[in-house]
């Protein structure tokens, strides 16, 4: 991470309070002094070609070595591009070309730093010192490379430290892999303040009791996670949590009410936050509630704009106060590595003689009477079926009501005979609960308007493909099940 | 093949792309209400009754409700082909 304020903070803490814990993980910890010397050692090992303007691809790892490597790149004034661990060779190759990553840094089995040159030239503005590049968790094709900005990250660190009172010694739990933008709050805002970051291994979090044992021992004050991980934190048999966080943050997607009720019961004194954002804008909306309101809300909104975030909604003509959300946050990235992708998603608008760049979120929201926003779904989930605007998530909710259904994804496709948009429902059924295609149709007909009924259904007991955060991987479902042109005739 | 089976074959193969076996489709399953036949596929179904059985589709009034089930489609074809004959 090439951010001078962060490097300065880390150096200062390492000098004035070297034994203070920076990172901890089950049974072990590393001090600020230790982390700083690890980073310095690594910085010495980089070849001279890693310098200002270099873009260095690094695979995310949930360990102190990765954090030290990130800091050492800052010492070399180079920009890290953090990609998910164990990326396939083909995707990695495409990402290198797409971003122009000039180097790849990794560790040998013996723990030695290995740096390889790629022969590419970074696709970054030469005059801008880019602190960090991340990839979007895109479920289809090659992830986009998001180029973060110095001001954006610095503003975000300031906001996060103030809103969640992150100070020297504050204990923050970090569950998500470090290639996610969640790391800016959990890891970097924490280290900048002298906090203790508790490293949870995302891959081990499925082990029963792993997260709970870790938290009972380390007692995090701030817990941020996607619903999938909150589910795992709550699914333990123990009545008392054994730790009592001040702030519990849900991000990524909305937590279902049943989960919220369990969370509120488990952490009665916490403040709960529903955060909305994306890698491109970082957090932009927040709803903060006490446990009682958090558990009681029928649907949890995303609340109000964070800090100086501006937004507008492109309203649907037939649904007032509802439409696609555009946001401009003080934390925004400067764009993607691909200028064309940037032009499509980052839209400059002239407001009071000032140019404000809005990010097209692709999410549909509804503004509530009190001004807060409710997330309705992805804008691309609204399709016109039989002439009527239909939210595919509503259709999926209805299908999921059937007791035999475990998961579902609906996919619009174009019928080649009629040229009309039609809908395919891919339904994962529970083994041992037989349901026929015609029964599923009758179930949908009971709950949905006729215009919204899927045209075709595929019933399968094969689990639907998921992304690393537990969401259904629609791209993969599409590739597996979408009607082949010759079959839909 | 009986007329009902021919109708079921048409529905399963042409309208449902073989998602359902002919044997699964009951005579009285409501095709309209359950979305097997929508306004677009209704046009194809009606055209097929004209091609396959000579129903004079341009000369008669057709209410979608007359074609709600396999049994009703059979009745519809029988009614209109005997009139035409």
Strand content of chain B: under 5%
Measured between the Cα atoms of the first and last residue of chain B, the distance is 22 Å
Q: How many strands, what sense, and barrel or not for the largest sheet of chain A?
A: 9 strands, mixed
Q: What is the first-to-last residue Cα distance of chain A?
A: 53 Å
- Helix/strand structural class of chain A: alpha/beta
Broad structural category of chain B: mainly alpha
Strand order of the biggest β-sheet of chain A: 2-1-10-9-11-12-13-14-15
Element layout with pairings:
The complex is a heterodimer of chains A (489) and B (85).
Chain A: H1 4-16, E1 21-25, E2 28-31, H2 32-45, E3 55-59, H3 64-75, E4 79-83, H4 89-99, E5 103-107, E6 113-117, E7 133-135, E8 145-147, H5 150-163, E9 171-174, H6 183-193, E10 196-199, H7 210-218, E11 222-225, H8 227-234, E12 247-250, H9 257-266, E13 271-278, E14 282-290, H10 291-296, E15 304-305, E16 310-316, E17 319-328, E18 335-336, H11 339-345, E19 346-351, E20 354-367, E21 373-378, E22 382-385, E23 388-391, H12 392-400, E24 405-414, E25 421-429, H13 437-447, E26 456-460, H14 474-481
Parallel strand pairs in A: 1-10, 3-4, 3-5, 4-7, 9-10, 9-11, 11-12, 12-13, 25-26
Antiparallel strand pairs in A: 1-2, 5-6, 7-8, 8-18, 13-14, 14-15, 16-17, 17-20, 19-20, 20-21, 22-23, 24-25
Helix pairs in contact in A: 1-2, 1-6, 2-3, 5-6, 8-9
Chain B: H1 3-15, H2 39-53, H3 70-84
């Amino acid at each position: 991470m090439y951010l001078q304020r962060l490097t300065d903070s880390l150096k200062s803490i390492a000098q004035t309070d070297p034994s203070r814990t920076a990172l901890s993980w089950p049974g072990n910890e590393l001090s600020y002094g230790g982390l700083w010397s690890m980073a310095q050692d690594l910085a010495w090992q980089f070849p001279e070609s890693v310098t200002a303007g270099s873009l260095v691809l690094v695979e995310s790892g949930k360990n102190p070595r990765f954090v030290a490597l990130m800091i050492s790149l800052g010492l070399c004034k180079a920009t890290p591009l953090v990609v998910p661990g164990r990326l396939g060779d083909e995707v990695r190759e495409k990402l290198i070309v797409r971003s122009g990553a000039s180097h790849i840094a990794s560790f040998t089995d013996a723990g030695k730093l290995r740096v390889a040159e790629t022969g590419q030239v970074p696709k970054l503005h030469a005059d801008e010192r880019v602190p960090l590049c991340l990839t979007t968790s895109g479920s289809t094709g090659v992830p986009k490379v998001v180029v973060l900005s110095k001001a954006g990250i610095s503003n975000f660190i300031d906001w996060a430290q103030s809103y969640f009172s992150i100070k020297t010694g504050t204990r923050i739990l970090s569950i998500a892999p470090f290639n996610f933008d969640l790391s800016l709050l959990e890891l970097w805002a924490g280290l900048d303040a002298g906090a203790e970051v508790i490293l949870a291994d995302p891959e081990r979090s499925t082990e029963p009791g792993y997260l709970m044992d870790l938290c009972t021992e380390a007692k995090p004050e701030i817990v941020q996670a996607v619903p999938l991980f909150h589910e795992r934190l709550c699914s333990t048999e123990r009545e008392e949590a054994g730790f009592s966080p001040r702030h519990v943050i849900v991000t990524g997607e909305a937590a279902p009410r049943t989960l919220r009720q369990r969370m509120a019961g488990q952490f009665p004194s916490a403040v709960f936050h529903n955060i909305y954002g994306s890698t491109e804008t970082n957090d932009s909306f927040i709803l903060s509630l006490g446990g009682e309101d958090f558990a009681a809300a029928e649907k949890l909104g995303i609340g109000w704009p964070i800090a100086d975030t501006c937004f507008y909604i492109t309203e649907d003509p037939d649904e007032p106060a509802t439409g696609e959300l555009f946001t401009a946050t003080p934390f925004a990235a400067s764009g993607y590595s691909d200028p064309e992708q940037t032009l499509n998603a980052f839209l400059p608008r002239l407001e009071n003689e000032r140019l404000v760049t809005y990010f097209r979120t692709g999410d549909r929201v509804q503004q509530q009477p009190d001004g807060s926003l409710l997330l309705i779904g992805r804008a691309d989930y609204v399709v016109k079926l039989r002439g009527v605007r239909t939210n595919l998530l509503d259709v999926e909710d209805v299908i999921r009501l059937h007791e035999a259904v475990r998961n579902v994804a609906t996919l619009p496709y174009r019928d080649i005979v009629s040229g009309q948009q039609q809908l395919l429902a891919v339904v994962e059924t529970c083994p041992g609960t037989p349901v026929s295609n015609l029964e599923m149709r009758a179930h949908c007909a009971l709950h949905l308007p006729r215009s919204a009924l899927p045209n075709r259904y595929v019933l399968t007991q094969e689990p639907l493909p998921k992304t690393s955060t537990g969401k259904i991987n629609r791209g993969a479902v599409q590739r597996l099940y979408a009607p082949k042109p010759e079959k839909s005739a | 093949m009986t007329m009902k089976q021919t109708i079921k074959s048409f529905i399963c193969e042409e309208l449902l792309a073989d998602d359902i076996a002919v044997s699964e489709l009951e005579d009285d399953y409501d095709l309209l209400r359950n979305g097997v036949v929508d306004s677009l596929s209704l046009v194809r179904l009606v055209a097929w009754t004209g091609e396959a059985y000579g129903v004079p589709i341009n000369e008669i009034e057709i209410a979608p409700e007359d074609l709600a089930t396999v049994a009703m489609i059979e009745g519809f074809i029988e009614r209109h082909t005997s009139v035409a004959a």
